[in-house]
Structure formats: structure tokens, C-alpha cells
Amino acid sequence: MENLFSVVVNKDMTWEMTHFHFHDPYEILFVTGGSCSFLIESDLIRARRGTILLVRSGLLHMSTSLPDEEYVRYMINFNPSSLRDFVSAKTDLLATFEKTHVLYLQESEIPAFEALFSACENHSSAFGMDLRRNMAFLELLVRLGEMSRDGKHKRLLPVKETDRNYERIRPIIQYILDNPTGNLSLEAVSDKFFYNKHYLCRIFKAATGISVGKYIASVRIQNAARFLRQGYSVQESGQKAGFKNNSNFISTFHKVMDVSPGQYRQQFRLNFDPGI
Q1: Which residues have a Cβ under 8 Å from the Cβ of 143 and sit 6 or more positions away?
Q2: What is the structure's pLDDT at 153?
Q3: Which fold, 6-154?
Q4: pTM of the model
Q5: Whether 211 contacts 204, CB under 8 Å
Q6: Residue 236 to residue 223: CA distance in whole angstroms
Q7: Where exactly does CATH 1.10.10.60 map onto the chain?
Q8: pLDDT tens, 53-76?
Q9: Does 1.10.10.1760 match the CATH number of domain 161-271?
Q10: Can you tell me whether residue 37 is helix, strand or coil?
């Protein structure tokens, strides 16, 4: 049996993504040191030691470490179709990712989860270690599923002043997510929400770390990728996602995804099963 997942441990004194991105693999991120501001779709999450973030396929997200101490985290990525043989009528290992983006551990719970993540990260070639890694990964998914059902691990952290800025632009983000093909020019969005466009640009960048225009482009690329996965042509996908110019669509897609739309569609067909 091949490995069901990939895992890395990253450590950074400063970390900042320059744009929203999404990917087809599911992702589990476990913060063991430092803290991070994490934006998933329209949810702003303050992640600190003991936070587990769950990101399913296709969700827009970006992160920025907060200036306090070294930001340390495990990241596990996996193809959801690889779990086909481990899903039962009573246990859907992917359901947790549909229900929540974040779980917060108590300090007393962290060592047990660190042991599971460490077992997943163990690269020993000794006899049986490949099976032990996969068993640790499956045990981790089961534990996450149990936690998501008890409710207590979904509590929110105290709101910070910077989060209050974000609350001002949350309705705008939701509007963009709900209307990706509409008129999303800066003037149109500013007028709809009764903001001066320069003020809107300032508070949007302060709250999210990127410009309004980059966020809109990311949302449209997210939708275009969905159409590509459904089998639409490159040009059809760009048009349905709200791009007026095919060349601009291809260029923007490549900047966000690091591959062309055609390459993305081909890679998805080769590596991912749309459903399990």
C-alpha cells in the first residue's frame, strides 16, 4: 500500500502569502508554535499553538504569520480519492472537512496530536514503517472526526482590534464570492457598499493583506478551475468565470496557479477523482 498522504514541517520567523490560492488536495495544518492570521473564503481565523486547520479541495485561502515568535506547523496534503477503501457507511473520513475549517486543542491535548503528526512525518525505511505512517494518518482523521462532533473544539479565540477591520469588509468578500461574474469593478463595489474607493482599497488591504483586485481575480480563477474540472474548454471556463478576454484569463490563471488552464485540467484528470 502506497503512502496515502504527504507531510512537511515548516518553520519561519516571518511568513506571508502574496495571494489567495487553492488546490485540489485536501490539507491539514497543525500549528505547534507561533501564530498566524488565516483567511479561508470569508472566515478570518487566528491560529496559534494547538490550532488545526482543515482545508478541503478548492477553498480559497492565504496565511500571514503574526510577529511574536517562530511560526511552526505541520502540513499534510492528500488526494481525497486515496481514502476510497477506508470510507464506510458509519465513518466518512472527509465529512469533517465539510463541517468546519478550524479546531482548537487544549494544551493538555496537544502532545497526543503532536505524536500522531510526528508518526505521519517519520520517514524511516524500516520494516513496517510505511504501514505505521498510514495507520497514524487514518487514526488522525478519525480523531479529527470525533472532535468536530463534540463542539467544544470549535470555540473562537478572543476578537482582536485588527479583526474589527475585517468585519467591515466581510460583507464585501461575501458579495464577491456570491457574484463572481457580476460587475466587480472597484467603482461598482465601492458604490454598492457606500465606500469611497480609496478608503475601501485601504481597509481591504489592511484586513486581508492583498488588494481588492487580486482577491476578485482569485475568486474568478477558483470558479474557472471548477469549470475546467467539469470538462469545459479553456475559453468556456474563462468566460463562465467572468473573464472577458481569453488571453487575460490564461495569463491570470498561470500567475495564480503556476500552470496554464490546459495543464491544470490535464493534471486533474490524471491525478484526481472528482468524487469518492
Answers
A1: 113, 116
A2: 61
A3: Jelly Rolls (2.60.120)
A4: 0.82
A5: yes
A6: 12
A7: 161-271
A8: 999 998 888 888 877 789 999 999
A9: no
A10: strand
